[in-house]
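Hi there,

I know you've been waiting on this one. I reran it after we fixed the sequence typo, so this is the corrected version. Both the input and the resulting structure follow.
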Amino acid sequence: MIKKTESGDMVGYRRPPVGTRFKKGRSGNPRGRPKKNRQEFQPGKILQSIDSEELVVNINGKPIRMSKAEIQFRQMFTKAIKGDMNAARIIAKLAKQYFGPEAEGPPEIEFIVAPAGTAHAAKS
């Protein structure tokens, strides 16, 4: 139902009061849509935050807190010891990078095949 106001304006369904109508030349959304928060993608920071997270690991039955980075290095050493050449190369590269070329590594290991009749060949 449409009513007349004291000033003579029609107010009702689809006829808001004159004072609350959109003004000519003025936006209905003056502040606009909020800007999207654009943070720069930084994979280094993401990796650092993930690697610095700590986990509880059981070693010899004892719970020990370690960072994920330390766990990764321990796994890399284990793989290198078991014969994974890619892991050994990565460990050697990291050792050279952080300890320098003057750092001494273990002496070259030489394997000697013992004859079948000796005591060393019997242990297996």
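Quick highlight: The beta strands are 3-4, 10-11, 54-59, 62-67.

Best,
R. S.
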